[in-house]
Amino acid sequence: MRPALDIRAHLDTRGTAILLSISLILIVAFAALGGLLQPAVVPGGSSDVNFTVIALSLPLTLIIPIIAVMITAGEWSDGSIQNTFLQRPGRAGVLGSKVLAAIAVIAALVVMSLALAALTTWIGGELLGEGAVFDTFDTVLTTQLATLAATLLFSLAMGVALQSTVLGLLAAIGFPFVIGTASGVATITGSETVVDVVRALDLQTAAVTFADGDAGAFELLPLLLLVILPAAYGAWRWNHREVG
Which of 67, 113, 194, 229 is the most exposed place for a label (fewest CB within 10 A)? Predict the structure, then answer.
């Protein structure tokens, strides 16, 4: 596996340069909105790092699927995967390398986002408001980071399984939105069957439950249905799909 090669190949394209530029602008803007404006709108005039990360999660839930799907499925869509397989014959190694590359790029982006969130929270709280709140950082780890990790896993599974940029993005971005809407509808209906069906497909909620340490066997079902099975099918298809 050569993840560094896949990272360079991903970063060297014009599309990636545009995407990363827009992503960085959005991350800085939402970090500033979350951290600097809190003292003006929150009672007490403090700035809480948890609220700042919640604001940052909005662009990150779109940026993470785009990067993950582009790295894992992009070469299938533009046809360059044929050249990659000619240069690197081990298909399983190429797949593993691309998955590691996607995880590395997104992990760097998330770490940078958390650092920006901490910085803007400190500036907003200590310099512009009545104090910065960092005691809620454990909540960040068990809620926002768990949700982003679930988004990454699902996006990787969709990119590997569908091997198409368009289909992968539609699934990775659209499905969580549909499940979020269905969860509200299921609660309104009051039907335990409908609630359980939606719960079985709600990976983000299962991830938060796992991070809280309250997960049971049922919370493994979204991981199995939405990550493990699609990824296993995608790995099989990756190794057997005809190129060209």
Answer: 229
pLDDT digits (tens, 9 = 90+) for 10-57: 777 777 888 888 988 999 999 888 888 888 887 778 888 988 999 999
Residue whose C-alpha is closest to residue 157's, from 143, 139, 176: 176
Look up residue 210 and give its two tokens. Answer: 């796992």
Q: Is the pLDDT of residue 7 over 90?
A: no
| Residue closest to 144 by CA, chosen among 244, 58, 63 | 58
Task: Using alpha carbons only, give the angle 122, 127, 130 rounded to the nearest 5 degrees.
Answer: 85
Residues 6+ apart with CB under 8 A from 129: 38, 39, 40, 45, 46, 47
Contact call for residues 158 and 229 (beta carbons, < 8 A): no
What is residue 27's predicted lDDT score, i.e. its pLDDT? Answer: 92
pTM of the prediction? Answer: 0.89
Q: Which amino acid is at 234?
A: G
